[in-house]
Amino acid sequence: MTVCFFGIYDRHYSRNNILIKGLRQNGINIIECNATEGKIGKYWTLFIMHWKIRKSYDAMIVAFPGYQAVILARLITRKLVVLDAFFSIYDSEVCDRRSTKPKTPAALYYWLLDWLACGLADKVLLDTDAHINYFRELFHFKKEKFIRVLLGADDRIIERDRQNDRDYLLVHFHGIATPLQGVDYIVRAARLLADENIKFNLVGSKIRRYRKQSDDGKINFIDTMSYRDLMSLMSVADICLGIFGDSRKTQVVIPNKVYEALAVGKAVITADTPAVREVLTDRENCLLCRAGDSRDLADKIIMLNKDDELRRQIAANGRQLFIDKLTPVQVTLPLVLWLKRI
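RESULT FIELD:
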């Protein structure tokens, strides 16, 4: 089985990297057809590259971001096309970030682009069943249209837990300042913990604006760094945080950072959502708190600070879950099984 991995994707983006690695580990031959230079020119480059390999593959995967690329893909091949949707542009821009008002021409454009991209594909990949159900509700597709492929994490670059002799608890978060992430709730939780022997590393250049809300030295704001350096920083923390926003998107996705923390062997605290409960179990391999609730997040951090055994057990169980079910070879298996049936 040979697959054309097609589009304007970033090879180094974790989702694409994990898909390629997992497919190859499952015995799928990958031919990459990738162009990133130029606004319009990259699509012409894709057309030329594809023409040279058009008879050399069995199915095509249009990688993220593939909303425009899948239109070209459908025009140039009659073979089965799989779209890795990853998320909805409409949901991100209109419902989560709220950068576009509903019922405007721009909102309609985003909805139509999502709908058309998914409609043109024979199969659509999404990361959770909750996300699939949301797409079905939003765009009116049948369940059979979708395949759940969990995000997982790249086990090659993940560093294992590193011991430390600190006299305080270190909490780690990395991300951006979108409502999904819930950085404001993290900062408020840190302020509630001002009298506790707890410090925070918050990584991401776009969240440095929260520095003004924290002047007690408990939060260390760190600029965006390379993925390898980020994993090294994560490996020295005691607790890693997931997402805490109160938008609909928070309810349907599990972010990369959660899988990465499991892989590193850290105790994870994240919002209690239908998506998370597809993979994780509260107090067994993670600790869940109410979404959009700084007080509950602070209470859960205190719980793990006071109970070393619970923290170590959650971390160990999370690491084992990653090894058993969440490596690239395992998360791509549902897609591989479908590909081998065609």
